[in-house]
């Protein structure tokens, strides 16, 4: 055998093995092998919180793992940080969304580094990414009153597709509410109905501006 070809054979074996390992490790995006969008610890989920959240509120929050059908037509796994009392509600609603193949972009706690600005949690970055999130210790925009998100008793779903609309004002900036677009919430949508059956309120029913992304259970 020509010894000069041995290095080439070794390289071929090495790269072939690496490729096979990569393919085997790549998630299929199925129920048994979902694509992991979020795998944070509880410490990660609270990391970088710039304001003093009362301990009694912090202790009530729980990281809930959820599966969902996303816009790439694959199954993903994410996490919702929410009041522990609402864990079963969240699991039931996400089960409906998954069964109906209602697409959800991502479900990642807002403390993730990609949703931070100057080190602080930034709701606008999360909304612009169409990310679904729940707990966020903050006040209601334009007021000094705590939001239901600050208690982990509200969730915003696909916010770029389901913006807050009041007259000409739209949040997040540049969003357009189009009821027939996949991932958009309407009164008849199975996800909306699942929340309502469990006693949640929907911002799409508000009289002074509609917050289509928002569900809460005070």
Automatic annotation (TrEMBL):
Residues 1-24 form the signal peptide. InterPro entries: Peptidase_M15C (IPR039561), Zn_M74/Hedgehog-like (IPR009045). GO terms for molecular function: peptidase activity. Residues 142-216 form the Peptidase M15C domain. Keywords: Signal. Pfam families: Peptidase_M15_4. This is Peptidase M15C domain-containing protein.
């Amino acid at each position: 055998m020509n010894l000069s070809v041995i290095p080439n054979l070794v390289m071929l074996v090495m790269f072939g093995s690496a490729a096979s390992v990569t393919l085997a490790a790549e998630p299929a995006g199925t129920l048994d092998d979902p694509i992991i969008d979020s795998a944070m610890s509880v410490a990660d989920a609270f990391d970088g919180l710039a304001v003093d959240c009362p301990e009694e509120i912090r202790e009530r929050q729980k990281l809930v793992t959820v599966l969902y059908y996303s816009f790439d037509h694959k199954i993903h796994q994410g996490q919702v940080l929410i009041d522990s009392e609402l864990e079963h509600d969240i699991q039931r609603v996400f089960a409906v969304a998954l069964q109906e193949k209602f697409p959800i972009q991502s479900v990642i706690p807002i403390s993730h580094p990609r949703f931070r600005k100057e080190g602080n949690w930034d709701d606008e970055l999360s909304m612009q990414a169409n990310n679904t999130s729940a707990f966020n210790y903050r006040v209601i925009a334009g007021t000094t009153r705590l939001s239901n998100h600050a208690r982990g008793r509200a969730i915003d779903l696909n916010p770029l597709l389901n913006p807050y609309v009041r007259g000409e004002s739209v949040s997040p900036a540049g969003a357009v509410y189009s009821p027939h677009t996949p991932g958009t919430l309407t009164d008849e949508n199975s996800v909306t109905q699942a929340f309502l059956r469990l006693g949640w309120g929907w911002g799409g029913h508000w009289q002074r501006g509609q917050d289509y992304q928002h569900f809460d259970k005070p």
